[in-house]
What we know:
The chain is α+β, with helices and mostly antiparallel strands. 31% of the residues lie in helices and 40% in strands.
Amino acid sequence: MFKVAVALILLVAVCHGQFGLPGGYSNKPELINTDFIQSLVVFAAEALSQSQNLFLTNLQVTAVQTQVVNGMNYKIGFTAQPTNPKFGTETKCEVVVYVPINGKPNLSSSQCQTS
């Protein structure tokens, strides 16, 4: 009985370490350089230009996390340069783009800091 309990605990620990917290975000560094993530960053930058009048160029993805919901949330960190120098020389953003199963992406949240 003790061996079964230990084996079960080890299995849970391995699965938790491999798959992350159920319902939480999982780091996905292998997605950083994909065309799909780049397209989501361009989408987010266009949304920021419309909603916050923040125009960005030279978008560089720095981090990607995913969360399975009814579709997928992509939490993406990226750096960029504002086109207007009065906003500084570098902007760091973290955005969440929700991609429904059969629908168009939606910018759920954004947080940018310019220096």
